[in-house]
Design goal:
The chain has 205 residues and is mainly alpha-helical. It has eight helices and no strands. Helix 3 packs antiparallel against helix 4, helix 4 packs across helix 5 and helix 5 packs parallel to helix 8. It is globular, with a radius of gyration of 18 Å. The N and C termini lie far apart (50 Å).
């Protein structure tokens, strides 16, 4: 985030990601009746602290972001009554933190962020980040995990099976679940095509 609020950014958590999450959050808030005075600042600032995916402190990133966002909003004169709810939404948005969202606004922000991990943009972000981290795309012996346990620390494609394909069922809002399932279908189509291309079925004999 080029505003100077973020540190340790990676190409999958850049300003474009922030803008997409804000757009998702705005649509979900309208559909679910959530308070935009909480949802939108939380969406804009949810990644104002970013730690590398392989950092031992990764699970602390959302709490650090919430603290920084809260301080920034107080200094900026934002209505203080909204700031605790914004801080909670930021803290709870993270998959790694494992903190349940307790308010509708926090649920909207979490769903909005997770939607950006799915569909066409989710595929692109997964491959982009995996390349930056220097991981192989897939396991040579079994590209898509079927008889082996998926391990996204070793292979990029395994991240779909470790996390991404299950996100739609974890959405809290009706609008988020609907869009999440649509995007997940696209990812499954991609994985099925990848399997076909890497198998003996990929080219005519």
């Amino acid at each position: 985030m080029r505003s100077g609020l973020a540190e340790g950014t990676d190409p999958a958590h850049d300003l474009a990601h922030i803008r997409r999450v804000v757009a998702n959050a705005r649509r979900l808030a309208a559909a679910e009746g959530a308070d935009p005075a909480v949802v939108l600042p939380a969406a804009w600032l949810h990644d104002c602290v970013v730690l590398p995916k392989d950092s031992a402190r990764r699970a602390q990133a959302s709490r650090l972001a919430a603290e920084r966002a809260g301080a920034f909003l107080r200094q900026s004169g934002y209505p203080r009554a909204h700031i605790p709810a914004i801080e909670h939404a930021i803290t709870a948005h993270s998959f790694s933190a494992g903190i349940p969202p307790e308010s509708l606004e926090a649920k909207v922000v979490q769903d909005a962020d997770r939607l950006d991990a799915l569909g066409a943009i989710g595929i692109a972000r997964t491959l982009l980040l995996g390349g930056v981290m220097g991981k192989p795309l897939y396991d040579d012996d079994e590209p898509l995990p079927q008889t082996r346990a998926p391990d996204d620390k070793e292979n990029v494609i395994d991240h779909f099976y470790v996390k991404l394909l299950g996100l739609a069922d974890m959405m809290h809002t009706a609008a988020g679940r609907l869009e999440g399932k649509r995007r997940t279908r696209l990812m499954r189509l991609y994985l099925n095509e990848l399997k076909r291309e890497l198998s003996d079925e990929g080219l005519p004999v």
